[in-house]
Write a structure and sequence with these properties.
Number of domains: 2
Helix content: under 10%
Strand order of the largest sheet: 2-3-4-11-6-9
CATH superfamily of the largest domain: Jelly Rolls
Order of helices and strands: EEEEEEEEEEEEEEEEEEE
Strand content: over 45%
CATH architecture of the largest domain: Sandwich
Structural class: mainly beta
Shape: globular
Radius of gyration: 16 Å
Length: 194
């Protein structure tokens, strides 16, 4: 049952195919899987210019603005027209819908969770107060503001831009903020319903 810690500043960065930004991958499971094979993937994107979003067939996505003025997400058919302009408000959408992202000002950063629809489901929450989360087979935490103490197997302290992920454990977590302005992203991953 691995618990893997990470820091945002040390995540590897890769340019987008269209040159519109850079992605820092937090994890892609199973490890070593390609963009066509992963069960779930978490990344942080730097959106530097307006343009099309990559299409991921069979994938559900949850995107959360971290910093910057954000983007307007629009599908060609008008079914999706969403201003992602408020930090720390997750927005879920099907990854197989072609979308255009138009910057609402300067560049921005967002937190992305992607799950293969027939294999996994994701719940993304932003927590600001002490919380007990139910058991989750797999998941991830990333601190956005302040410090947090996490109690799973043993106490873990995380500061801003630090996080951890786990798999195959079924851990329940107690989260305690250490600062008045603390905020943490909590991702719970479960098997998809048959």
């Amino acid at each position: 049952m691995p618990l893997v810690r990470f820091h945002r500043s040390t995540l590897p960065a890769q340019p987008w195919k269209n040159g519109g930004g850079v992605t820092q991958e937090v994890l892609c499971l199973p490890q070593g899987s390609s963009p066509d094979q992963f069960d779930w993937r978490v990344s942080i994107a730097h959106i530097a210019s307006s343009g099309p979003f990559s299409v991921f067939a069979g994938i559900d996505r949850v995107i959360t603005l971290l910093e910057g003025p954000g983007v307007r997400l629009r599908s060609h058919d008008g079914a999706i027209d969403h201003r992602l302009d408020t930090p720390l408000q997750p927005f879920a959408f099907p990854g197989d819908t072609p979308l255009r992202a138009d910057l609402l000002g300067r560049d921005c950063h967002d937190f992305n969770v992607m799950t293969r629809r027939q294999v996994r489901t994701a719940r993304v929450q932003v927590l600001r107060e002490a919380t007990t989360l139910p058991r989750s087979r797999e998941g991830l935490f990333m601190v956005v503001h302040g410090g947090w103490e996490l109690q799973g197997v043993a106490p873990v302290r995380l500061a801003s831009d630090e996080g951890l992920w786990w798999r195959e454990s079924g851990l329940a977590w107690q989260l305690s903020p250490q600062d008045a302005d603390a905020a943490i992203l909590a991702v719970s991953i479960e098997p998809a319903s048959p």
